[in-house]
């Protein structure tokens, strides 16, 4: 899990903004969603994908 | 659609809480095993991406709703006038309260035609959002640049009431020329309350700028409703 | 422990990553924002300026969008009385300002041709000619023919210069052709010119009585306001009385198609019905009204007796309507909660113009439909500054500033004192009114004249006759375009500044004064009419009389002069005009908000007379009572006969303004209006064998002219032919009669009997 600690944190931040925004959209949440939540989740996803890529190359699967 | 979004959001929330809790329980594992790996893929990739997509549905689609424009308090004077002031004679109020525009009342007038128009409207919306959250605006707010009268023409062109008024002929000629300078608002008046009424300190400002208005502001609502429906048959 | 350390290491690295990410995202957000701010299409306008429309008497507030010295956009001023509504003509003012055809240099006629000259030469010649006339033939041999479009400062200066400087009362102008009957009507009835009510009354009226007004086409923003009022209140009724079925009449609840020239019968008949039905407001009458037959005071019984000759059954046939229609209209007028009358040239431009105005005012007085919100008589003005510029400054042959009369010695003395000229300077005899001035040119009595901002060679009735005079006299014409009809008769043609090329105050229909600021330099060598007049005064040796050099100084002089009258607008300073959206006089102090309705509480001159028992005070009259005149119908000379079976009536169309000097140059408006033409009802075209596009010859008592035929089933009525006068290639005024009202001297453009002959 340590490997995905940061990713998890980023996802928590992202979702903490996204979920309220989806349920009750408003200008502030929209701003936070676009400029905080979305980048956080994007970074988390990329980090995980990077881990997966590393994992796969290490296992000579790629 | 809104309800589906809400349900999905709650589902995402619940699943994420469970998954992240499970992941926390596995936090001392050095290697990610198959099951945990799947959990990671779902918790960190699949569901967050789903949440982002749902959020972007709001960003790109729900923002066309008038309620979205109204959710910025700075737009309250336009919204209150348009939706709740049954005595208002602004074009926005007359169009809205008579139901002349089926949906996306703000967006319908404020987005130009075609893809370019949509892009322009979105960029404008982005600018408005940034101004609003950073509080870099001043009341009364003003329309920057020029309202495109072709947006009016888009709906009114060819309609019986429009074509019957022969005074429209030189206007259309002007609008279609390279040197267009006229505006439909010139003859048909304000689209929204005039700036002075939207200025803090004006007697009307308090009501206009109140984001919680839901009530009709006049005593005899029926009489006024009747007049507004009469507006629809204003010209032969 | 080691785990924790690992954690920290990890955190530090990721903290850096996070910071980098935040900066990157923040940077993207901000630069994206910056980009959207940069790419906003701001349009061509660099700055917006508050102003007033150049054209009609509605006096719409406009916002002018300037790009450096170019006018690029005209928009309605949402904060002004017109709430952002203007009309199609005003909307295209930018095109007029852009016109390349402007007159740019002074010209002098040499060997029958206008050749370019200099200001020095032109002004010297002008001075020489005026001096010669004054020396040789005296002050009555010179004249000034001004305009309801000159700025207040300009009309005031010309009036002062001619009357107090040259001792010539030959100061008149085109408002004589337009507003004189309304002005005299108000003055006779209330003792003071200018209407008691305001546009604001439109928002409170329940009955609109439009007579001789095609507001839909001629005052579109006011018409829009009337329509909004009607939509806001289903009880609102619109009555339209007009010989033509105008676009205004299209929207009427009750349309009364009276025959041209007969409506005096209708008004008197309405009074008669109102008296018969007991709808007279006895209390209002007993407190605030007196009766008069034009020579002496009469009793209400005598007035009622006078009305008996006008019972609907007696007059309906001659009016071309039914007695029931008269009764319906009279009842609606008197019984409505608030009735507002609106009229324009259909009433003013008539041989009985003053009587019609008197009687319209009387209708309001006998029914108490006055001095309360929504109830008022309101004459709509044709020109942008006929009220403020000409009526209020007294720039007519019989007037002095602020409602004073030349014929009254006391008034002359007051003005001599205010103008600081010796007693007896102002000649006691009124000067020549518009028609008389040009008639004087024909007879040779008027030798030299200055014409500013007007186009009499196209606008005067019986046009050919007066053109002879223009040919004979030495005319100095200040013009904006070289190709106007009047410019052709100029011996000296001076290029005048137009609209925002100069600064000054406009005053319109409802006593509202508004300022036009100078936003660009005049084209070429053009000068403002004000500068021309000041220069002329100096050259004529009147530098001691016209001491001011700028419009602002002039305004301050005039403003202070107004203090000693019931027009008192001394509180309307230049600064206030720039800040506020027009102010309605009386306005005696700088903190006074202006007066929306006169003669009631809030009017500074009525206030001290108002108490629980007296709600109204007509302070223009010594006894505080307005006068209801018993005015008989006197048939005009122009009437249909076997030889001349049709009525010709003239007017405006929505896309053109007056003689078309400005609006006919705008391509869109030009095409919209089309060429000048005679418009027939099909029932008249048929018997004459006329089709659309046919060439015809029209003959009246004043002469013949040719023109093309148009046919309108919707807007014309049987027996009436309509022609607009905007097209200089179609001078309909050649055949229009110059019969005029004996009191106001305003010509009757609305009633001319004609015969029609088809040309092969």
Topology summary:
The complex is a heterotrimer of chains A (62), B (236) and C (760).
Chain A: H1 5-23, H2 27-58
Chain B: H1 2-25, H2 34-60, H3 66-70, H4 76-83, H5 91-97, H6 105-110, H7 114-133, H8 150-156, H9 160-163, H10 168-176, H11 184-188, H12 205-208, H13 221-231
Helix pairs in contact in B: 1-2, 4-5
Chain C: H1 2-38, E1 47-52, E2 61-67, E3 70-76, H2 88-91, H3 93-98, E4 107-110, E5 113-116, H4 119-137, E6 142-146, H5 152-165, E7 171-173, H6 180-190, E8 207-211, H7 215-218, H8 220-232, E9 237-241, H9 247-250, E10 254-256, H10 263-276, H11 282-288, E11 289-292, E12 297-298, H12 300-307, H13 312-319, H14 323-335, E13 339-343, H15 345-348, H16 353-367, E14 376-379, H17 386-391, E15 399-400, E16 404-405, H18 409-418, H19 434-443, E17 448-452, H20 456-459, H21 463-472, E18 474-479, E19 492-495, E20 504-508, E21 512-516, H22 529-539, H23 551-562, H24 574-579, E22 583-584, E23 626-629, E24 646-651, H25 667-673, E25 678-680, H26 682-685, E26 695-700, E27 703-711, E28 720-724, E29 752-758
Parallel strand pairs in C: 6-7, 6-17, 8-9, 8-13, 9-10, 11-23, 13-14, 17-18, 18-19, 24-28, 25-27
Antiparallel strand pairs in C: 1-2, 2-3, 4-5, 4-19, 11-12, 15-16, 20-21, 21-22, 24-29, 25-28, 26-27, 26-29
Helix pairs in contact in C: 5-22, 5-23, 6-16, 10-13, 10-14, 10-16, 13-14, 19-21
Keywords (chain A): Membrane, Transmembrane, Transmembrane helix
Transmembrane segments (chain A): 5-23, 29-50
Subcellular location (chain B): Cell envelope
Molecular structure report:
Chain B: One of its GO terms (molecular function) is metal ion binding. Chain B: Keywords: Electron transport, Heme, Iron, Membrane, Metal-binding, Transmembrane, Transmembrane helix, Transport. Chain B: The chain crosses the membrane at residues 6-23, 35-60. Chain B: It is found in: Cell envelope. Chain B: Residues 39-195 form the NapC/NirT cytochrome c N-terminal domain. Chain A: The chain crosses the membrane at residues 5-23, 29-50. The complex is a heterotrimer of chains A (62), B (236) and C (760). With 62 residues, chain A is mostly helical. Chain A contains two helices and no strands. Chain A has helices at residues 5-23, 27-58. Chain A is elongated. The relative contact order of chain A is 0.16. In chain B, helix 1 (2-25) runs antiparallel to helix 2 and helix 4 (76-83) crosses helix 5. Chain B has two domains: 2-60; 71-147 and 191-231, no CATH class. Chain B contains 13 helices and no strands. Helices cover 58% and strands 0% of the residues of chain B. The radius of gyration of chain B is 24 Å and the shape is elongated. Chain C has a seven-stranded mixed beta sheet, sandwiched between helices. Chain C has a six-stranded mixed beta barrel with strand order 24-28-25-27-26-29. In chain C, strands 10-9-8-13-14 form a five-stranded parallel beta sheet. Chain C contains 26 helices and 29 strands. In chain C, helix 5 (152-165) crosses helix 23, helix 10 (263-276) packs antiparallel against helix 13 (312-319) and helix 19 (434-443) packs across helix 21. Chain C is an alpha/beta fold. In chain C, strand 20 (504-508) and strand 21 form a beta hairpin. The A-C interface holds A 2, 5-6, 34-36, 39, 43 and C 6-7, 10, 14, 21, 25-26, 29.
């Amino acid at each position: 899990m340590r490997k995905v600690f940061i990713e998890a944190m980023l996802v928590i931040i992202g979702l903490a903004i996204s979920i309220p925004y989806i349920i009750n959209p408003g200008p502030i949440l929209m701003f936070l969603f676009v400029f905080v939540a979305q980048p956080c989740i994007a970074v988390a996803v990329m980090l995980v994908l990077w881990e997966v890529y590393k994992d796969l190359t290490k296992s000579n699967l790629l | 659609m809104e309800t589906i979004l809400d349900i999905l959001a709650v589902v995402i929330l619940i699943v994420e809480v469970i998954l992240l809790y499970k992941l926390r329980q596995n936090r001392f594992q050095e290697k990610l095993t198959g099951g945990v790996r799947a959990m990671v893929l779902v918790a960190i990739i699949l569901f967050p991406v789903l949440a982002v997509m749902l959020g972007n549905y709001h960003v790109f689609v729900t923002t066309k709703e008038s309620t979205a424009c109204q959710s910025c308090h700075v737009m309250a004077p336009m919204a209150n006038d348009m939706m709740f002031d049954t005595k208002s004679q602004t074009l926005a109020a007359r169009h809205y309260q008579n139901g002349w525009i089926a949906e996306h009342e703000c967006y319908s007038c404020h987005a130009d035609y075609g893809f370019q128009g949509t892009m322009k409207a979105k960029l404008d919306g982005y600018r408005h959002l940034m101004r609003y959250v950073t509080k870099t605006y001043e009341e009364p707010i003003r329309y920057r640049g020029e309202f495109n009268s072709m947006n009016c023409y888009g709906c009114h062109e060819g309609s019986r009431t429009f074509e019957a008024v022969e005074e429209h002929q030189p206007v259309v000629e002007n609008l279609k020329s390279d040197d267009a300078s006229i505006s439909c608002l010139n003859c048909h008046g304000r689209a929204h309350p005039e700036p002075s009424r939207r200025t803090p300190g004006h007697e009307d400002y308090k009501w206009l700028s109140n984001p919680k208005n839901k009530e009709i502001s006049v005593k005899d609502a029926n009489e006024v409703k009747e007049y507004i429906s009469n507006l629809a048959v204003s010209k032969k | 422990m080691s785990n924790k350390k690992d954690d920290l290491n990890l955190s530090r690295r990721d903290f850096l990553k996070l910071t980098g990410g935040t900066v990157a995202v923040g940077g993207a957000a901000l630069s994206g924002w910056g980009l959207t701010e940069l790419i906003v299409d701001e349009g061509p306008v660099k700055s917006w300026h508050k102003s007033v429309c150049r054209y009609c008497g509605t006096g719409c507030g406009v916002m002018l969008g300037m790009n450096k010295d170019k006018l690029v956009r005209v928009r309605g001023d949402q904060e002004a009385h017109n709430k952002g509504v203007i009309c199609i003509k005003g909307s295209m003012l930018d095109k007029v300002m852009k016109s390349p055809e402007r007159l740019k240099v002074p010209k002098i006629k040499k060997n029958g041709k206008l050749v370019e000259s200099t200001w020095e030469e032109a002004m010297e010649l002008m001075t020489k000619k005026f001096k010669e006339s004054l020396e040789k033939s005296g002050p009555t041999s010179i004249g000034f023919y001004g305009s309801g479009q000159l700025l207040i400062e300009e009309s005031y200066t010309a009036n002062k210069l001619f009357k107090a400087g040259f001792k010539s009362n030959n100061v008149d102008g085109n408002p004589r052709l337009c507003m004189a009957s309304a002005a005299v009507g108000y003055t006779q009835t209330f003792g003071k010119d200018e209407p008691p009510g305001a546009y604001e009354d439109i928002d409170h009226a329940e009955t609109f009585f439009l007579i001789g007004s095609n507001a839909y086409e001629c005052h579109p923003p006011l018409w829009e306001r009337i329509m909004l009022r009607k939509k806001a209140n289903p009880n609102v009724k619109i009555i339209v009385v007009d010989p033509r079925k105008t676009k205004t009449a299209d929207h009427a609840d009750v349309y009364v198609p009276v025959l041209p020239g007969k409506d005096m019968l209708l008004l008197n008949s309405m009074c008669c019905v109102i008296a018969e039905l007991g709808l007279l407001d006895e209390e209002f009458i007993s407190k605030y009204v007196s009766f008069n037959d034009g020579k002496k005071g009469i009793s209400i019984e005598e007035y009622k007796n006078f009305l008996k000759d006008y019972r609907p059954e007696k007059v309906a046939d001659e009016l071309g309507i039914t007695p029931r229609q008269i009764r319906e209209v009279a009842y609606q007028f008197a019984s409505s909660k608030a009735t507002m009358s609106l009229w324009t040239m259909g009433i003013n431009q008539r041989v009985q113009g003053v009587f019609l105005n008197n009687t319209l005012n009387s209708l309001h007085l006998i029914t108490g439909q006055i001095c309360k919100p929504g109830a008022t008589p309101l004459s709509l003005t044709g020109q942008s500054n006929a009220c403020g510029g000409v009526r209020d400054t007294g720039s007519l042959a019989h007037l002095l500033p602020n409602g004073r009369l030349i014929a009254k010695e006391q008034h002359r003395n007051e003005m001599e004192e205010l103008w600081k000229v010796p007693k007896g300077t102002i000649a006691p005899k009124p000067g020549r009114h518009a028609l008389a001035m040009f008639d004087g040119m024909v007879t040779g009595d008027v030798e030299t004249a200055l014409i500013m901002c007007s186009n009499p060679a196209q606008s005067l009735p019986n046009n050919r006759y007066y053109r002879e005079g223009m040919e004979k006299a030495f005319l100095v014409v200040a013009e904006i375009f070289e190709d106007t009809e009047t410019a052709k008769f100029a011996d000296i043609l001076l290029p005048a500044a137009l609209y925002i090329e100069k600064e000054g105050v406009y005053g319109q229909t409802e006593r509202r004064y508004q300022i036009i600021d100078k936003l660009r330099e005049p084209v070429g060598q053009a000068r403002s009419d004000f500068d021309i007049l000041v220069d002329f005064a100096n050259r004529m040796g009147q530098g001691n009389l016209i001491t001011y050099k700028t419009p602002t100084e002039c305004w301050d002089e005039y403003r202070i002069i107004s203090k000693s009258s019931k027009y008192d607008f001394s509180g309307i300073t230049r600064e206030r005009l720039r800040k506020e959206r027009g102010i309605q006089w009386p306005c005696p102090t700088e903190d006074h908000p202006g007066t929306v309705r006169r003669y009631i509480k809030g009017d500074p001159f009525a206030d001290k007379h108002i108490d629980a028992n007296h709600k109204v005070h007509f302070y223009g009259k010594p006894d505080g009572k307005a006068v209801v005149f018993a005015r008989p119908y006197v048939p005009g000379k122009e009437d249909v006969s076997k030889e001349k079976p049709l009525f010709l009536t003239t007017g405006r169309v929505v896309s053109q303004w007056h003689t078309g000097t400005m609006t006919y140059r705008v391509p869109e408006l030009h095409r919209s209006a089309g060429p000048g033409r005679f418009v027939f009802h099909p029932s008249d075209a048929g018997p004459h064998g006329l089709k659309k596009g046919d060439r015809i010859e029209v003959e009246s008592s004043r002469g013949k002219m040719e023109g093309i035929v148009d046919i309108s089933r919707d807007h014309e009525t049987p027996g009436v032919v309509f022609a607009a006068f905007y097209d200089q290639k179609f001078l309909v005024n050649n055949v229009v009669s110059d019969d005029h009202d004996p009191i106001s001297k305003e010509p009757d453009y609305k009633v001319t009997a004609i015969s029609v002959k088809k040309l092969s």
